[in-house]
Amino acid sequence: MLTEQEAEDSYLGQFIPLQYHHAMLTDANRMRNFKAAIDDVVQPGSKVLDLGGGTGALSFFAAAKAEKVWCVELNPDLVIESKRLLALNRNGDKVEVIHANAFDYLPPEPVDVVICEMIHVAMLREKQIAIVESFKQRYRQRFGAAMPIFIPTAVVMAVQPMQQDYCFEGFHAPIVQIQELAENTPGSIELAVPSVYGILDFKQEMKHDISWQGSFNITQGGTLNALRFITKNILAIQLQAHSSIDWLNRYMVLPLATPLQVQADDIVQASFNYRTGGSIFSLQKKLRVEILKLPKAPDY
User: Fold this and answer.
1) What is the pLDDT of residues 19-55, one digit of tens each?
2) DSSP string computed for 76-119
């Protein structure tokens, strides 16, 4: 019988099947913003490390300017595929695909930029934070204190109370949903504005455990039966333009075990805690939401 941690590690250790990488390649929101950020950060002659390189697409973007790119991938099928695809593309010869674990690998020399796109909503499932923190420690020991630039450079996470339709042709199924980015998502009603619950700065030491307790001012009455998690990745900061290049993940909506009937102006308190890289269930089982009992205003 597996322990809870062993079961979670096994669940999280699954390779992303090759066919799912097609969805990543056709995700214009992801591809265009990463391309723009890499083009902005990577300078001519740079050395670049791509941790978890997948099909090699981000390494390809870097190779347009870089002198050398090391593309590290653990999945042996993707190692073969990325080598094949990079050989079909201009500057692919600048990229060295390496079959290795990103938790262990260090480049043979210092690099200027590190790309690490192992990102899930709320920084769950994928081990990006653990990998980047491990890399920084090992890199510092070998090459000194000066750190490369990271893409992404920061992450902002927010949460929002929702009324979510869980009826599917008459079948009631409160289930985790990954939603497309849209102002009007069918079946979704926003009950309050989002609240930021976490900011991770890749230049600083990042905590693996995230814990939050906060409140929402309900703006619209309804059935509060879900929380929507929002993750904005700051891919590159453009200081001269006073702007940034960002990538907003698709939303993740988690159902609540006990729905609440709320009215406008109610104050709702929510809390949760989880570990970055953990399973979605590890967050879901820690969700707590309640209507605050405010003291009744005195009569005059």
Assistant:
1) 888 888 999 999 999 999 999 999 999 999 999 999 9
2) HHHHHHHHHHHHTSTTGGGEEEEES-TTT---SS--SEEEE---
Task: Give SS3 for 245.
Answer: strand
- CATH of region 154-291, choose from 3.40.50.300, 3.40.50.2300, 2.70.160.11, 3.30.499.10: 2.70.160.11
Give the residue among 91, 153, 96 at the shortest CA–CA distance from 105: 96
Q: Report DSSP letters for 163-213, one per residue.
A: EE--EETTEE----EEE---SS-TTEEE-S--EEEEEEETTS---SEEEEE
CB-based contact 268:218 (threshold 8 Å) = yes
Which CATH topology does 4-117 take?
Rossmann fold (3.40.50)
pLDDT tens for 224-255 read 999 999 999 999 999 888 899 999 999 999 99
DSSP code of residue 120? -
Domain boundaries, the chain: 4-117, 154-291
Q: Which of 224, 208, 205 is nearest to 216 (CA)?
A: 224
